[in-house]
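The freezer alarm interrupted the setup, so I double-checked each line after restarting. Inputs confirmed:
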Amino acid sequence: MSEQRTERLDLRGTPCPLNWVKTRLRLEAMGPGERLEVILDDGDAIQNVPRSVKSEGHRILQVTPLEEGFSLLIERA
Amino acid sequence: MAEKQARSAEDLKAGGLIPQRQRGKITVRCKAPGGRLTAERLERIARVAREYGQGVVHLSVRQSPEILYVDLADLGAVVRELEEAGQEIASCGKRFRVSTACGGCEYNPNGWTDTPRLAEQATDRFFGEETPHKFKTCFTGCAIDCMRAREMDLGFQGMVEPMLIPDKCTSCGLCVRACQDDALKLSQEGLPVRDLDRCISCGDCIKACPFDAMVARRIGHAVYVGGKHGKHPHTAYPVAQFVTDEQVFPVIEATLHWYREHGRPAERIGDTLDRVGIDSYRQALRPVVGQALLGAADLAKPKWRRIFHRGVADAFPRYGDV
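Predicted 3D structure, all chains:
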């Protein structure tokens, strides 16, 4: 398990709530324990998506501010 | 039935029966605190509406299902059939009305307080009590205030005090982004620091934190009094914060008592407060809520300018020492 595969989803420019819908669909297609990196815009997206990820029981491992937006590293529940 | 027909419109309204434009027809208002009712009751309401009305139900602005076009002559049968399913009739007129509520913390992701339960219990305890004019209460679970606590004669709004667990914080800054009131800033050590004068106790920071570093230290109710809509809307006075569940009934009790003592017939409590003075009411509330009572210093905080817009916050009279 040292080589953890991380999928990546760049949702910059995607409006709410579509960015959460897309994040959710991708997570549903993945297996438990797998990781997904989501890139989100500042503003509405970063205000809302982490909260929804958390309430669905997934774990957010890391939040990294980027030059434009944020990167969210999620571990699927 | 002749006896029933002789009842005045005011008598009818006391029982939640509203005379319609159509002669001999009445609207039957069903009691549903917080707009919550069982499927069985909903089915019974539907059946009664089909059998005795025109198969149409209107949802009142205060969450009560109203059966339209009931014949005055069928009233006894209608009430009996509804009661068989545990469905009581609501009330109108000058009294404590059925409390309204949002989804609350039971299933709604936003709510902090158990608003449907409180609405039901408050209705069980105070429903129908006579007051100088109508008396509307609501329980709303968070600062979003879907139930419009600031437009109620007495409104309770859920609020939360956040607390940081520094060891869990990764300094990601999401809570700072989530705060719409500029109440959080990252310190030089990278930890979020809260500006108590700007925080509106909404809890967005708690919900946004990915690492559960921001948690709820305490949950309570903000209390608003004297609000109403209608022809002459009146914004409620904020009077207390972080009132506990246990203090809710004493607050209602004290408010009804003050209102009956000072209110003129057909005067809403907001107008009574304007006439008699907010400090008289605050004095009555002080022994009930203690430290939770808001004072002049609390109301001077910038958060109220954010909550009430366009000068409304500045229009409140200065609160005195009580």
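Quick read of the result. Residues 1-6 of chain B have pLDDT under 50 and may be disordered.
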